[in-house]
């Protein structure tokens, strides 16, 4: 059986290329042939990952940031003959790696291929798009687009918090209507909605502390109020893992959601601009087999 190695040469300050030789060496021990594909533009990684589902590949290894990993997940989703998926996280935030305890050091992440311990993990589906981390509507979703690559490399994932705090000023809420698993769960004003597949959101590993990668659930958080006196309590709860019980937050778990709003809003899918509301999304349980550390 073959292995495919997808490299985004622009990821992680161009670090991806440094680890190519080591990756090929490790993959070469378990596979007859290692096919290397370099991405040049958006969409390439998804296309290559889909090609790796032709039944001749045992393993797909991606080296890149969350963008490349999301594309690979999109290429693999709902294919019959998926290879096991491994990745070396080279982005600034690396939420999927945080959730799966994949080491940040590329050498250590590559060493996981020696053990080849795998776990089936859930992903989400919205129309013809797939996500492994988070859907967002409202303030934070908009703030994500304003974070520049320079801010990301200077402040890491805190750049999102800074941009988010700026965006909180002068905001008015929208009316949001949410159905979870076919039942109306929320119909009121909100400033933001997040639906997380994993515990780590924008680098905050305690955001959805209760979320497991294979719990078949979306973890839905709604920010109901934003008066300064009350909103400040959210920051400590964000770090302590208590967001679900915060007074300003409504929290639901569900296998599927439908979301409508009274204003024009766009859903952000794993950090990228998605479709306008209304939308519906669902969990695809244990859809992707990922190479992870033994303790997971
Ligand atoms: N050869 C290339 N040169 C420049 N850009 C590329 C190349 N190949 C792919 N890309 C772009 O890189 C994007 C993904 O980048 P990456 O994997 O680093 O994710 P990211 O979301 O930017 O990571 P993070 O935010 O965690 O730093 C792709 O969507 C594509 O647009």
TrEMBL record:
Kindly list the cofactors needed.
Mg(2+)
Alphabetized Gene3D superfamilies for the sequence:
2.60.200.40, Probable inorganic polyphosphate/atp-NAD kinase, domain 1 (3.40.50.10330)
Question: In what residue span(s) does the DAGKc domain sit?
Answer: 1-130
**Keywords assigned:** ATP-binding, Kinase, Lipid biosynthesis, Lipid metabolism, Magnesium, Metal-binding, Nucleotide-binding, Phospholipid biosynthesis, Phospholipid metabolism, Transferase
> Which GO terms are recorded in the biological process aspect for this UniProt protein?
phospholipid biosynthetic process
> What GO MF terms are annotated?
ATP binding; ATP-dependent diacylglycerol kinase activity; metal ion binding
Q: Matching InterPro entries, A to Z? A: ATP-NAD_kinase_N (IPR017438), Diacylglycerol/lipid_kinase (IPR005218), Diacylglycerol_kinase_cat_dom (IPR001206), Lipid_Phosphate_FormReg (IPR050187), NAD/diacylglycerol_kinase_sf (IPR016064), YegS/DAGK_C (IPR045540)
Q: Which PROSITE patterns match?
A: DAGK
Q: Name one GO cellular component term.
A: plasma membrane
Say which family it is in. Answer: Belongs to the diacylglycerol/lipid kinase family.
- In its UniProt entry, what is this protein called? Lipid kinase, YegS/Rv2252/BmrU family
Which organism is the protein's source?
Terribacillus aidingensis
Q: What is the lineage of its organism?
A: Bacteria, Bacillati, Bacillota, Bacilli, Bacillales
